[in-house]
Write a structure and sequence with these properties.
CATH architecture of the largest domain: Alpha-Beta Complex
Mean pLDDT: 80
Helix content: 40-55%
Number of domains: 3
Shape: elongated
CATH class of the largest domain: Alpha Beta
Structural class: alpha/beta
Distance between the termini: 86 Å
Number of helices: 11
Strand order of the largest sheet: 1-5-3-4-2
Radius of gyration: 33 Å
Largest sheet: 5 strands, mixed
Strand content: 15-25%
Order of helices and strands: EEHEEHEHHHHHHHHHEEE
């Protein structure tokens, strides 16, 4: 295997350089590219691109942002360090360069690592050793690829961390979207995310152990919600009558068996109401 140290510097036409299939970075911010292009147009490329010679030209190892920006800036040639290396080493170097610059999303990094294992035939132990990380760390990074494409897209768009993604793995696929809705809407920190997921798992465990209790809890919650809605509606009705100049009042009585509301309207304040001997009284149980 060739090493990355076998290299030399050349000026190469941008059109002669093709992107690498092993490039882990997939998304590029157009505004940042434009800023980089303006800088390159003014000052040139300070750090050369890394490429390797192939049978049909040159393959990019690292520096795709610089290459794209150089094309936008109209450069006719770009400085490149030519590495005499094989595909596996080139792929490894591309990932290392991006990791060191912290330019990758958690999923881009994980996909790049998986590509080293599946396409380049490297074991997890070998990849971890070459990248200088513990094998457990590598395994954790690969675990987030178990999340579906839609979940990955939403996590990336919300700029959540790898640990946010790993926390969601504790939930079933059906529960992950609802949890992610709250995490994004409330801007939850990692600690708040972990607390939310722990609470969801605890509630699920309780419901699995006591399905009747869970059903009763749901019914009671629904009933209480209906009662509050009724109480609020009644209060608004009394307010409306009072605003219209009608002397109306309500009282609430509650026992272990029922809740009773009494509404009293004074006859003299509501001439359009049917006359009765003392007062009109509405009783709701």
């Amino acid at each position: 295997m060739y090493t990355i140290s076998d290299k030399k510097l050349l000026m190469i036409k941008p059109e002669d350089i093709r992107p690498s299939a092993n490039q882990p970075r997939k998304s590029f911010d157009e505004y940042e590219l434009k800023q980089l292009a303006d800088s390159i147009h003014t000052s040139g490329i300070i750090q050369p691109l890394s490429v390797r010679k192939t049978v049909d030209g040159y393959e990019l190892i690292a520096g795709e942002r610089r290459l794209k920006a150089a094309i936008m800036a109209g450069l006719r040639r770009v400085p490149c360090v030519i590495h005499r290396t094989d595909e596996n080493t080139a792929a490894l170097y591309s990932i290392i360069e991006n990791i060191q610059r912290s330019n990758l999303t958690p999923f881009e990094e994980a996909e790049g690592l998986e590509r080293l294992i599946t396409k380049c035939g490297m074991s997890q132990t070998e990849v971890a050793a070459r990248l200088g990380m513990a094998q457990s760390t590598l395994s954790n990074k690969l675990r987030i690829l178990r999340l579906g494409e839609d979940i990955r897209r939403r996590i990336t768009a919300a700029s959540l961390t790898e640990r946010h993604a790993r926390a969601l793995l504790r939930l079933s696929p059906q529960e992950r979207n609802s949890a992610l809705d709250r995490i994004i809407a409330e801007g939850m920190t990692l600690k708040q995310t972990e607390e939310l997921i722990a609470q969801m798992l605890e509630e699920k465990e309780e419901n699995d152990e006591n399905p009747e209790k869970a059903e009763d809890k749901a019914v009671r919650k629904f009933s209480i919600g209906d009662m509050r809605l009724f109480s609020n509606s009644l209060s608004k009705l009394i307010d409306t009558l009072q605003n219209a100049g009608i002397d109306a009042h309500s009282r609430k009585y509650e026992t272990d068996k029922y809740i009773e509301y009494k509404v009293r309207i004074i006859k003299d304040s509501a001439k359009d109401l049917p006359r009765r001997e003392e007062s009109a009284q509405l009783k709701i149980c």
